[in-house]
Amino acid sequence: MITIIAAAGENNELGKDNDLPWHLPDDFKRFKKLTSHHFIIMGRKTFESLPKTLPDRVHIVITHDKNYGNVGAEVVYSLPEALEKATSTKDVFIIGGGEIFKQALDVADKIELTRVQATFKDADTFFPEFSTDNWKLISEKKHEKDEKHKYAFTYETWVRK
Fold first, then answer.
1. Where in the sequence is the domain holding 33, given as residue range(s)?
2. Deepest of 21, 99, 119, 121, by most Cβ within 10 A of its Cβ?
3. What is the DSSP track for 94-145?
4. Per-residue CA distances from 150 to 3, 26, 53, 125, 161 (Å)
5. What's this model's pTM, rounded to 2 decimal places?
6. What CATH number is associated with residue 93?
7. Which residue positions does the secretion signal occupy (predicted)?
């Protein structure tokens, strides 16, 4: 199973300057629960935005830099190569960034999308548009704004039709 997992604003905003424009602790907990003990595939910038490697996950980093290495992760040079490295009984999660998400839309089985109920005008990275002709929404769970979450958001699960 190949799953894209992301959080995006109402206009598909993912981030600005290689950082998230929001802090949603419950979304982080969900991300950890879903991705732990599995492969996580990401681009180099996403990898470098992490404070450290995430525990209990196999990191696969896609980069064009042939000298990039010894970073606590498997380093590959394309999404197909990353998916080859991830063959096993573990699931595969594509965790970013925008260009990797765009490539993964053609091969993913599922999208776990946290839709943040806000717009972020300064964003410089975006989640790709995807067609409901190809994807079916099978689950939605709303999370209201509260003392720990400045924005309301909805967990959406999409599967390929």
1. 2-160
2. 21
3. EEE-HHHHHHHTTT-SEEEEEEESS--TT--EEPPP--TTTEEEEEEEEE--
4. 27, 12, 27, 21, 34
5. 0.95
6. 3.40.430.10
7. none
